[in-house]
Amino acid sequence: MAYYDLMGFGPDGWGSLMVKASALTLGVAVTGFGIGIFFGIIGATLKLSRNRLAKGIAETYTTIFRGVPELLIIYLFYFGGSLAMSNFLHLFGYQGFFSVPSFIIGSIAIGTVSGAYQTEVYRAAFLALDRGQVEAARACGMRSFIILRRIVAPQVLRIALPGLGNVWQSALKETTLLSVTGLVELLRQAAVGAGSTREPFAFYVTAGVIFLFFTSISGWGFNKLEKHFARSVRAR
């Protein structure tokens, strides 16, 4: 079968399935990265705290989730989460094993790992912040919330953007590991198509091109954001 027909949207084409899998891959990556932002901000706040217990919790979090392979984390979250939900539902008379939806558990797993890396990105960005501006704002009588919103947050984001871009690229590629939970993401769909048609080269090259498209567009977007937030720096 010709490549155009194989990847087309006709009755024998796999185009619609590949597009659906691509959208699912992008969706779980965006959701996971968003969860990672939440965990990352909390983790960085705890690491920058003067409280030893808070620092210890954050240090344990980043050490575990940056040190353990992502695939193992996905397994632990999927089977552990499903087992925990099953035991909880057994209290209300539910019989059998409850399987947590793959999209949800995949997003949480990717988000937890992403959050561990984002924690270090935000922490490093905050430590690189010019303290003189914060002191000047306090001397002018600005409240802490206003200082955070107008001075600290925009500059921390500007400094953190290159690192966040790398974390996003990693989160996007980590979605390929979620096939072990039954999620039909892009690489899993390519494997199914390759096995069904015996055309592995066509499907895997297509998947690679789609991933390259996603990462290229993402890189372009992060570069635009970096230039946008660096305008005030260049104007000096």
Task: Briefly say what this structure is.
With 236 residues, the chain is mostly helical. It has helices at 3-6, 15-47, 52-67, 70-90, 102-127, 131-139, 144-174, 186-197, 200-229, 231-234.
Describe the structure in your own words.
- 30% of the residues are buried.
- Helix content is 79%, strand content 0%.
- The longest helix has 33 residues, at 15-47.
- The chain is mainly α and 236 residues long.
- The protein has a single domain (13-230), classed as MetI-like (MetI-like fold), CATH 1.10.3720.10.
- Helix 2 (15-47) runs antiparallel to helix 8, helix 5 (102-127) crosses helix 7 (144-174) and helix 8 runs antiparallel to helix 9 (200-229).
- The model has no long low-confidence stretch (mean pLDDT 90).
Strand content: under 5%
Q: Which spans have pLDDT < 50 for at least 5 consecutive residues?
A: none
Quick one: CATH superfamily?
MetI-like
Radius of gyration: 22 Å
Report the major sheet: none
What's the number of helices? Answer: 10
Which outline best applies?
flat
**Structural class by sheet pairing and helices:** mainly alpha
Fold-level CATH name = MetI-like fold
* Amino-to-carboxy terminus distance: 60 Å
Strand runs, count: 0
Order of helices and strands: HHHHHHHHHH
Percent of residues in helical segments? Answer: over 70%
Total domain count: 1
Mean pLDDT: 90
CATH architectural label: Orthogonal Bundle
CATH class: Mainly Alpha
